[in-house]
Amino acid sequence: YLMPDVVASSGSMIVVSNRLPFVLQRDKDGKLFRKASAGGLVTAVAPVVINGGGLWVGWPGMHLEDSSEPMPESDPTDITPTAGLKSEKVVAVQMDPAIFDSYYNGCCNATFWPLFHSMPDRASFKRDHWKSYGIANKEFAECALKALRSLPKTSTEVPLIWIHDYHLMLAANWIRQAAEEEDIKCKLGFFLHIPFPSWDICRLFPWADEILQGMLGCDMVGFHITDYCLNFVDCCQRSLGCRVDRKNLLVEHGGRTVRVRPLPIGIPYERFVELSEKAPRVLSTNQKIILGVDRLDYTKGLVHRLRAFEKLLENHPEHIEKVSLLQISVPSRTDVKEYQDLKEEMDQLVGRINGRFTKPNWSPIRYIYGCVSQDELAAFYRDSAVGLVTPLRDGMNLVAKEFVACQINVPPGVLIVSPFAGAGETMHEALISNPYEIDDASEVIHRALTMPEDERILRMNYLRRREKLNDVNYWTKSFLSAMGSLLTQGEQDDVGS
Ligand code: ADQ
């Protein structure tokens, strides 16, 4: 997947993420087996780990009573990129289930998830959860060190440790300190998949300084877009008093200079094109489809989206019986009350709108609560007239990118994105729609449904070209090059307050 020169110059890579790229399960005889995940991130990063002689550190999705129980190999029929990740290349993090629950469901999902999406009212701040977060991060750091010590030492290649996401914001400092004490060389990089909030929001977290210091344990910290980088730099200056350089995105901390970089994630573009070329047609041709695909999460703006669609039918009755909204929502974090409430609200709203507008041969909303296969997803993306990606806040949003990759029909459909998603910042030719402004959001949908063919073609061509160039492999390469290149003298001198 990667240009050989990039792999060759990068040294071995240790990826540290909350979850391994597969989950462990037991069959009916109690034997462990792997269930592979095939997300874009795994597809892009697994080959770098495998080809570069690296390792993957993460939670395997279950608690193992006996920690010496051997890790299973992948199934011989597994053709996903993780198949090459032999068990000796995996370090499965284990910890007390109660600590894991308080770290994961408590601190990660009930505190950082809402807070970093600028929804502080939904965030809970509990000292116990924060304590568990520290214990869990220490455990991940210990496992990363174990992985680091196991790598063969070469004089030319310095191993890279790539830490992912809001679950592991404290791990870097522990890894750095221990590696320095043991005189093991390594470079540390971090990537945050969700937004980094402004200082006003960040400071609400009582232990924000520790988070910032944890992230500054890295040599490079990556975010999807420049806005998040600037928020981070600002927080480092205002909370920790660091000297910063906003122009070059540098932060001085503990006698080191940390690079901050916008690295917008991409998708496996060609894979989606191929899927959409092969997938059979599943949607009927006599109605236009407006498509929404999301995890069922309160950040995704689903309730606002349904209201905007209802408004469209109210203000533009010409779309009745001609247009349907197909909303596919994957169940997510179903044991958390906020998510159960959202499910309830969606069920009621879909019922109410359908009850209000349905005709004998047409319903306005088709609502799938569940996962769909990649083939089916590609067919939905390809055959929809409008892709509606309207989160209230979102780090990037891969659905917007998958939609444009699958738009192979001529003339193509139209993408609508929220300005509060990273995708809204980078996909300039999409129609931009503020999900909070329901009237305007409904007018933007109307505009998409009535857009002339030549404008649709022009916009979609630009969108597709950008995603093709900036695919997920490009993202991995950008991360490696941001890690690899040394600070120039100019950058060192530029750090000022
Ligand atoms: P998520 O919040 O999970 O990711 P997103 O980027 O949209 O959000 O990715 C969702 C993925 O799940 C997509 O690849 C999509 O195809 C898939 N998916 C969604 N609904 C599905 C369904 N019903 N059936 C099958 N597949 C479905 C986090 C951040 C994002 C950031 C990514 C990557 O919140 O902002 O873009 O990480 O960095």
TrEMBL record:
<comment type="similarity">
    <text>In the N-terminal section; belongs to the glycosyltransferase 20 family.</text>
</comment>
<dbReference type="GO" id="GO:0005992">
    <property type="term" value="P:trehalose biosynthetic process"/>
</dbReference>
<protein>
    <recommendedName>
        <fullName>Trehalose-6-phosphate synthase</fullName>
    </recommendedName>
</protein>
<dbReference type="GO" id="GO:0005829">
    <property type="term" value="C:cytosol"/>
</dbReference>
<dbReference type="GO" id="GO:0003825">
    <property type="term" value="F:alpha,alpha-trehalose-phosphate synthase (UDP-forming) activity"/>
</dbReference>
<comment type="similarity">
    <text>In the C-terminal section; belongs to the trehalose phosphatase family.</text>
</comment>
<dbReference type="GO" id="GO:0004805">
    <property type="term" value="F:trehalose-phosphatase activity"/>
</dbReference>
